Amino acid sequence: xxxxxxxxxxxxxxxxxxxxxxxxxxxxxxxxxxxxxxxxxxxxxxxxxxxxxxxxxxxxxxxxxxxxxxxxxxxxxxxxxxxxxxxxxxxxxxxxxxxxxxxxxxxxxxxxxxxxxxxxxxxxxxxxxxxxxxxxxxxxxxxxxxxxxxxxxxxxxxxxxxxxxxxxxxxxxxxxxxxxxxxxxxxxxxxxxxxxxxxxxxxxxxxxxxxxxxxxxxxxxxxxxxxxxxxxxxxxxxxxxxxxxxxxxxxxxxxxxxxxxxxxxxxxxxxxxxxxxxxxxxxxxxxxxxxxxxxxxxxxxxxxxxxxxxxxxxxxxxxxxxxxxxxxxxxxxxxxxxxxxxxx
Length: 344
Hints:
By secondary structure, this protein is an alpha+beta fold. Helices cover about 15% and strands about 45% of the residues. It contains four helices and 22 strands.
């Protein structure tokens, strides 16, 4: 049996013990200091503008990984800005060998197995492809919080910006941005269950004067390679007779015709809400495809694909957004041939 003494010594001991317990609680309790700060209005726009600008104005070279579902791919990028403008080389390190060389507004796609160079104009929706639309509306679709705690990616200090969607028709994002240069070091796409479904992150990175400009040179001698030029031909989906109902906030940023095979040309529409993008492809149904199901869905990591047959066309919607968003777009698509085509 335990006995409790009421002596002064005992009370003093209890007081000391209680003080130690309370002191320990102070040290083990989570800090009540603020760890994040909200970014709203012009502050959010200004931050993302810095991130977008940093990818263009800084010199950097490194290896980054792209993880989507169970698939992981690595690439090496070298980006230099000098008196001649912007120069960039992107080399795929996994799968079939392929390189992209960019000088200002011209991109060369090197295909070693075919000894072919395809010249294309540089697209505007380039890494990290933020703020391709009117930025003042971004706060209507996302809430943004900036972490005050520093993290490290590829040996560089960065700060995390978390963007949470206000509705269930899009995914969220976590962006880790270099503290000094504002270069995007890691990007995560977050699904509706708060799980990461896609990630792009540098695993090694050199910036500034330490970048080796020799890494801009291609891996191959290109003297006897065939050169082809691919033109990006603009197309007006509405004038072509297509009515597409996009999720609120997504607006067209590019609509072109892409060559496919030898006889077929595919219409390609890209929509963006300022952070994420959705691609819509429209192409004719071939004779062999007329017996296929009228719709289908495929999921690969964060990329969802939904295809719907509309009259004699396939409408395929692809994007890092919920499948239900793409399904609603594709199913609601309507084709009304313009009067001029009916007369021909």
